[in-house]
Amino acid sequence: MTGPLVNRPDIRLAMLGMVEGNGHPYSWSAIFNGYEPEAMARCPYPGIVQYLAKEPADAFGIPGARVTHIWTDEPEDAIRVSRAARIPHVVQAPEDVIGHVDAVLIATDIGSEHVARCRPFVEAGVPVFVDKPLADNAADLRQFESWLADGRPILSSSCMRYAKEFLPYRLSTSSLGALRFATMTMAKSWKRYGIHALEGLYPILGSGFRTVRNTGAPGRDIVHLTHDGGADIVIATVTDMAGAFGHLQLCGTDAAVHVPFQDTFYAFKAQLAAFVDYLRTGRRPFPHDETRELVTMVIAGLQSREQDGRVVRLDELQVTSR
C-alpha cells in the first residue's frame, strides 16, 4: 500500500458487523464521530456508556476521518448505533458500502468469520481494518497471508498494543533486570480474548516465542508460553474474570511490577488513529510479521487444549507469505 488516501481531506469509513458480547460499533464509531448522550444511554453495554461519559467533548474525533456508513448482523442494531454515534447512512448489506467509502472496519471478534467478512472488500481493493483476532485457524491465516502477499491493504490489532499503562515497559524493562516471568489475566475466552493478552505482552517481550501449552478447559484457559529471551509467560483467560481484565505482571532479577489496564478509551483511540495514519501514509504501525506470530500463538493454544495440554511448538504451525 502506498498511501492512496494521502490527499483525501475526509476519509469515509464503514463500520461493519456486530456480534454478541462485542459493542465496538458503538464505541469505535463514537470515538470517530462523537455521540448523542440520550441515544448512547440505550447502548446494551454499560461499560461503554460509562467510559465514554468520562471523556470531554474535545476528546472525540480523529482528524480527517469519519464513520459514514454502518451495517450490523441484526438490522435493528445498526439503527441504534447510527442514532447513538451520528452515522448518517445505514445499509442493507455490507457490500453496499463499496464505492461509497474509502475503507472499512470489521468490528467483530470471531476469527473464524473474518475471511468471509473481509473477502468482498479485499477483492474490491478497499482497505480493511479487522478486529482481533485476525484468524483463529491455520487455513484462514493462510488466506490472509496470501492476500497480504498480493499487497492487499489489511491491518489487524488488539487495543492492548496501545495501552498507555504498559508504555513504560514497552520502552524499557531495564529497571526490572532480566525478565524471568510474566503474566496477564483476561476475561472471556482464549479464542476471542487471548489475543488481547498476547498483544499486550508482545511489544514488551518482542519476537521469539517458541512453545505454547494450554492446560485449561473451555471457559478456563491457562496457557504457558516459552520465549527465547529466557522468560516464562502464563496467561489466564477465564470467562467471568472481568475483575482481572488486562492485569499485567512482569518479574525480573532486580524488581517486579503489577500494572492494570485501565483506560479503554485511550487505547481504542490510539488503535484507530494508527489505522487512519496507515491509510494516509501506507506505513504499517508495526510489521505484519508480528500479527502472524500472534495469531499463530492463538491457534497453538487452541490446538494444545484440544490435544490434552500437549506442548505445541510454533514452528509446527508456521504460516509464511509466498
TrEMBL record:
Pfam families: GFO_IDH_MocA. Residues 63-143 form the Gfo/Idh/MocA-like oxidoreductase N-terminal domain. It comes from the Bacteria. InterPro entries: Gfo/Idh/MocA-like_OxRdtase_N (IPR000683), NAD(P)-bd_dom_sf (IPR036291). One of its GO terms (molecular function) is nucleotide binding. This is Gfo/Idh/MocA family oxidoreductase. It comes from Paenibacillus sabuli.
